[in-house]
Every structure is written in structure tokens, then in C-alpha cells.
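Researcher: We're teaching a course module on how sequence relates to structure. For the next exercise, students receive a sequence and then see the predicted structure as C-alpha cells, so they can try to spot secondary structure elements on their own. Here is the exercise chain.
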Amino acid sequence: MVGRTVGAGDGHVTFDASANDLLNEADKSYADFLSLARTLAANGGDEKLADDDFDSTAGLPTEIESVESVNLAREQIRTVIWATGYTYDYDWVRVPVFDSRGRPVQQRGVSDRPGLYFLGLHWMHTFKSGLFSGVGADAEHLAEHMTTSD
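Model: And here is the predicted structure for the students to work with:
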């Protein structure tokens, strides 16, 4: 995690020293979301929103070392991929398993087509389904399904 990129040239990429500020803002947004989700869960009884597993921050650093410049050659970095956001792209899936909005029709990752599964989708099973911290539980479910289904 680094701060905002402020320049690139002569084999170096430079960043402002805002990484910890960005992490603090993300932590606050996440905590605010969890608070709202739990309030909604308490009022509506939605067990997916009430899941307490997904907010564990145990073992995560509270602060990281600021990186202000990277020498690409010294760090043996030959490729930089700018990932500034994403959207799902299913154009390569040529099977009719999508709803009218282009989302996969699935239940906990299992589609109605034998052998076609989805993983890592937002709200696939719980909020954490689309997060690195939660994809493991969904992967275990799919592995179990794959080994027990015909």
C-alpha cells in the first residue's frame, strides 16, 4: 500500500506520504458500514448482515512504513499495472446463466449449469464474499459442493 502516485520518470515512481491516511479513512468507512449493517440487521433480522466474522482486524498492522519513491530497476519491477477500479466482465462466459442485469444467477456460487461456479462476488453469500478475508469460506463451500455432487 502506498500513497497517491505523484510522478513517474527516469525509472522511478514517486508517491505522497498519505498511505496511512488512506488506510485510516478506509478503516473508518468500514467501521461506519459495519455499524449501519448491524443496525439494519437488528431491525430487520437479516443474518447475512449480522455476521460478526467479517470484521476481524486481528493481526493487521495499525500503521505501515511510508514509501515515497520506488526505483523500478533496483526492485526488479518490469511491469506496472494501474488498477484504479474494476467492474465484472463476463463477456467470455458463453453460457446463458445471467439475469436481465448481466449478473450471474447462482446460489452460494453454484449455477444451474453443472460444473459452472462463481467465487468472489459481492454479497454472494455474505458481505465478506467479495473480500479477500471472506472468499475462503465460500471457496470451502464450493469445494464441498464439487466433491459431493454428481
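Model: If you want an answer key for the exercise: The chain has a mean pLDDT of 81. The helical segments are 19-44, 135-148.
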